[in-house]
C-alpha cells in the first residue's frame, strides 16, 4: 500500500472513532433533564462558557506543544481528555463537576489541531492534499453520523434518550480513540524544537508548481516567488550544510509565520477559515440549546426529539459533499472566491431562518443545509492552504487559524451569550452568526468581482 494511503487510513479511523460521542446530540437536553435540572439559560452561560474559555487558554499552548512532541502524543492525550470530560458528567453530576468536565472538553477540542497537522506532516506529496483532506473530513463526519444514528435509535427504542447509557458509550468511544492513537506511525522529527539547518528554511519548500499562461501572464506573480531550483532539493556542498548556523525557535516561528501569510491567497482563505469556524463553533454548540428553547417557547411537551436524526443527516450529507468535492478538479484559485461567496450566502440565509422559525422540523432542515455547506467549504479551504505551505508550517498556521476562530467564539460568549455587551435570547444569538457569514459573503463577492478586472492568469497545480 502506498504511504499516503496507509497514513490516510490510520487518520481516518482515528477521526471516525473520535466522533463517536452519542451524548452530544442530546447534551443540552441532558443538562436540562431532571437528572441535572439546569435551566435552558444556565446551559450556555454557566456550562458551555467554561469549555469556550478553556479552548481560548489552551489553543496556543497546544499547537506549539504539538510540534515539540511530534503530534502523536497530543493525539493520545486528546483521547484521554475526552474520557475525563465524559466521566465528569456521568451519574447525575453536580454543576461544579460539569464545569470541570467542560474544562477538559476545551482541551479535547484544542488538540484537534494536531489531527490534520499530523496528516500533512506525514504525507509529502501535495498533489494528494485535496484528496486526503476530503477523505479525513469525510471520516470525521461519518463518525458523527454513526454516533448520532446510534443516539437517535436508542432514544426511539427507550421512548426518550437514555442519557447515562449515552454518556458511557461516549467514554468507550474516547477510550478507543486514545488506544488507536498509540498505534499511529510516529512523526520522525520535530519541525521547530529539533535542530534544523538554515538551508532548510530558505524556501517555502512547495512541491506544487504554479503555472501561468505564458503568452499573456509571464510577468504575473501570486504570493511568493518560488525559486527555480525549489523542486531539486539538492545540496551542492554537504559539508557546508553541516556547518550552517542554527536558528532560534522564536526566530524560526516568526519567519515561517510571516512567510506563510505573505501569500495573499493563503491570507484570504485563512480569513474565511477563521471567521467561518468561529461561527460554526457557536452554531454547533448552541443548536441543541435552540431545540430545547423552541420546545419550551411553544410549550410543547409531546414532541419527540429527533436531535440525533438531524445531526446524523447533517454529518452524512456533509461527509458526502466533503468526499465529493475532494474529487473535483477545478482551478480553485479562479473559481474559489465565487464558491465561498455563494456558500457563505446560503449559510447566511439558513441561519437567518433559524432566528425566526419556530417549527422544529424546519429548524432541523435548516441546520442540515448549513452543516453541509460549511463542511464542503472547509474541505477546500484546508486543502488549498495546505498546498501552498511548507510542510513544517501546518501545525503553526492551522493552529493559528483555529486560535482566531476560538477568539471569535470567546468574544461572542463573553459579549453576547453571557450578556456583557448585549442581552438577547437564544434564538436571537443566531442572528449574530448569520451576520458573520453575511460579512464573508460580501467580502468574497467583492474579491471575485475585483478579479474580473485584475486577471492574473490561469493557475494550476501539478
From TrEMBL:
Alphabetized UniProt keyword annotations: Membrane, Transmembrane, Transmembrane helix
Keyword Transmembrane helix: yes
TM segment ranges: 46-66, 73-91, 103-121, 165-187, 269-293, 338-357, 363-381, 393-417, 429-453
Database matches in InterPro entries: Folate_carrier, MFS_trans_sf
GO CC aspect terms: plasma membrane
GO MF: vitamin transmembrane transporter activity
Domain of life of the native organism: Eukaryota
Keyword Membrane: yes
SUPFAM superfamilies reported for this sequence: MFS general substrate transporter
Record Pfam families: Folate_carrier
NCBIfam families assigned: rfc (TIGR00806)
Similarity field: Belongs to the reduced folate carrier (RFC) transporter (TC 2.A.48) family.
Protein name according to UniProt: Reduced folate carrier,Major facilitator superfamily domain
Species of origin: Cinara cedri
Organism lineage: Eukaryota, Metazoa, Ecdysozoa, Arthropoda, Hexapoda
Amino acid at each position: 500500500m502506498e504511504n499516503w494511503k496507509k497514513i490516510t487510513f490510520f487518520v481516518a479511523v482515528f477521526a471516525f472513532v473520535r466522533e463517536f460521542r452519542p451524548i452530544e446530540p442530546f447534551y443540552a437536553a441532558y443538562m436540562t433533564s431532571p437528572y441535572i435540572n439546569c435551566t435552558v439559560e444556565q446551559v450556555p452561560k454557566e456550562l458551555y462558557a467554561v469549555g469556550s474559555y478553556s479552548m481560548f487558554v489552551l489553543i496556543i499552548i497546544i499547537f506549539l506543544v504539538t510540534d515539540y512532541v511530534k503530534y502523536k502524543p497530543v493525539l493520545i492525550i486528546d483521547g484521554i481528555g475526552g474520557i475525563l470530560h465524559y466521566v465528569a458528567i456521568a451519574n447525575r453530576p453536580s454543576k461544579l463537576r460539569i464545569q470541570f468536565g467542560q474544562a477538559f472538553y476545551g482541551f479535547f477540542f484544542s488538540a484537534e489541531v494536531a489531527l490534520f497537522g499530523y496528516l500533512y506532516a506525514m504525507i509529502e506529496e501535495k498533489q494528494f492534499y485535496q484528496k486526503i483532506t476530503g477523505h479525513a473530513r469525510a471520516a470525521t463526519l461519518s463518525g458523527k453520523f454513526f454516533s448520532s444514528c446510534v443516539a437517535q435509535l436508542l432514544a426511539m427504542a427507550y421512548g426518550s434518550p437514555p442519557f447515562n447509557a449515552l454518556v458511557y458509550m461516549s467514554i468507550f468511544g474516547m477510550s478507543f480513540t486514545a488506544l488507536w492513537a498509540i498505534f499511529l506511525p510516529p512523526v520522525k522529527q520535530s519541525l521547530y524544537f529539533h535542530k534544523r539547518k538554515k538551508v532548510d528554511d530558505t524556501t517555502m519548500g512547495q512541491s506544487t508548481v504554479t503555472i501561468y499562461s505564458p503568452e499573456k501572464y509571464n510577468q504575473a506573480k501570486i504570493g511568493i516567488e518560488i525559486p527555480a531550483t525549489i523542486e531539486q532539493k539538492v545540496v551542492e556542498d554537504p559539508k557546508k550544510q553541516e556547518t550552517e548556523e542554527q536558528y532560534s525557535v522564536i526566530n524560526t516561528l516568526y519567519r515561517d509565520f510571516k512567510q506563510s501569510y505573505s501569500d495573499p491567497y493563503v491570507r484570504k482563505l485563512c480569513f474565511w477559515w477563521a471567521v467561518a469556524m468561529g461561527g460554526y463553533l457557536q452554531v454547533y454548540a448552541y443548536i441543541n440549546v435552540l431545540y430545547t428553547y423552541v420546545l419550551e417557547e411553544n410549550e410543547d411537551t409531546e414532541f419527540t426529539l429527533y436531535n440525533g436524526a438531524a445531526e446524523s443527516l447533517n454529518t452524512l450529507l456533509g461527509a458526502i459533499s466533503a468526499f465529493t468535492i475532494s474529487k473535483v478538479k477545478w482551478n480553485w484559485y479562479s473559481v474559489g472566491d465565487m464558491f465561498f461567496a455563494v456558500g457563505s450566502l446560503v449559510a447566511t440565509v439558513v441561519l437567518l431562518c433559524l432566528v425566526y422559525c419556530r417549527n422544529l422540523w424546519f429548524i432541523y432542515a435548516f441546520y442540515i443545509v448549513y452543516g453541509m455547506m460549511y463542511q464542503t467549504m472547509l474541505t477546500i479551504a484546508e486543502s488549498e492552504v495546505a498546498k501552498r505551505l511548507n510542510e513544517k508550517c501546518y501545525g503553526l498556521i492551522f493552529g493559528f487559524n483555529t486560535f482566531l476562530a476560538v477568539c471569535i467564539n470567546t468574544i461572542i460568549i463573553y459579549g453576547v451569550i453571557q450578556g456583557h455587551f448585549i442581552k438577547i435570547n437564544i434564538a436571537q444569538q443566531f442572528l449574530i452568526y448569520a451576520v458573520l457569514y453575511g460579512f464573508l459573503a460580501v467580502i468574497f463577492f467583492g474579491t471575485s468581482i475585483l478579479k474580473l478586472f485584475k486577471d492574473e492568469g490561469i493557475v494550476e497545480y501539478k
